[in-house]
Write a structure and sequence with these properties.
Shape: elongated
Distance between the termini: 63 Å
Structural class: mainly alpha
Low-confidence stretches: none
Helix content: 25-40%
Number of strands: 2
Strand content: under 5%
Number of helices: 5
Largest sheet: 2 strands, parallel
Mean pLDDT: 84
């Protein structure tokens, strides 16, 4: 025996949030890392490449790109050994929807790719294995 009234035959959800957004699932073209930033570490370069081609960038304005530049500079400092920057970086990338939880909080979803199209790989250059790089960074402290 069930509780409450029976659902209507053509029930619809009406609680769609007004700021919810659906973004394309495909990686974006991205932008080149500005040389004027002076980024030197492979980790920061990989961070730029990953975020500049992320699907979230389809909706970015110039202020968002400026924020990515500042955050990339912080990531460069992190990989140079300033571990105090990790919390600030995490807060910044959360605003872009870095994790599944962040995207749920932002009500961000991605379009489902067509079945006909093959799944593309993300061509992020791996100058140095990330685990090896982080191990080196943490063991120097």
């Amino acid at each position: 025996m069930t509780r409450g009234p029976a659902p209507k035959e053509n029930a619809q959800r009406r609680n769609v949030h007004e700021h919810a957004q659906t973004l394309p699932a495909a990686p974006q073209k991205g932008r080149e890392l500005p040389k004027g930033l002076g980024v030197t570490t492979p980790g920061a370069k990989r961070f730029w490449k990953t975020w500049s081609t992320a699907p979230q960038t389809a909706a970015w304005t110039e202020t968002d790109w400026a924020e990515l530049e500042l955050t990339t500079k912080l990531v460069d400092g992190l990989f140079l050994g300033d571990l105090k920057l990790a919390g600030e970086i995490r807060q910044r990338v959360a605003k872009w929807g870095a994790t599944v939880e962040d995207r749920a909080r932002l009500r961000m979803t991605f379009e489902k790719p067509d079945e006909d199209e093959p799944a593309g790989s993300t061509d992020v250059p791996q100058e140095l294995d990330m685990d090896e790089e982080l191990y080196k960074l943490l063991s120097e402290s």
